Amino acid sequence: MSARFNSEDEDLKIDTCRDGDAIILRTRGEVTVFTSPAFRETLRQATESMPPLVVLDLQETTYVDSSGVATLVEALQTVNRYKGRLVLAGMSRRVRGVFEIARLDTIFLVAADVAEALKA
Q1: How far apart are CA 95 and CA 99, in angstroms?
Q2: How many CB atoms lie within 10 A of CB 103?
Q3: Which of 5, 99, 102, 118 sits 20 to 30 Å CA-CA off 76?
Q4: Which residues, 6+ apart, have CB-to-CB distance to 63 below 8 Å?
Q5: What are phi and psi of 9, to 5 degrees?
Q6: What predicted TM-score, i.e. pTM, was given to this entire model?
Q7: Looking at domain 2-118, which of 3.10.20.320, 3.40.50.720, 3.40.50.2300, 3.30.750.24 is its CATH number?
Q8: Around Cβ 23, how many Cβ atoms within 10 Å?
């Protein structure tokens, strides 16, 4: 399943694939107030089958604002409710900084890349 979302200034592309029991969502672009609603819906669809592992590959995500962080926290809560695991993989220094400032790097499982996340 693949989705592409456009807004006036920001663009976010999300590719979704399976690797065994895991669902991997690869995001490219910015997760902002403009793109978060579509991202939230994609995450909802990806987690409705309750996969044991959800990996968000953020390697090509250039920016995450507070709305994007809220979307990710909501996804984490959803996955935690059904006892799955959500792992953030490949965060750039800029995106990681947002999580560190909010101290969310202690709440989320974080992996250097997708291969490491799949072993979580």
Answers
A1: 7
A2: 8
A3: 5
A4: 30, 31, 32, 94, 95
A5: -115, -30
A6: 0.89
A7: 3.30.750.24
A8: 23
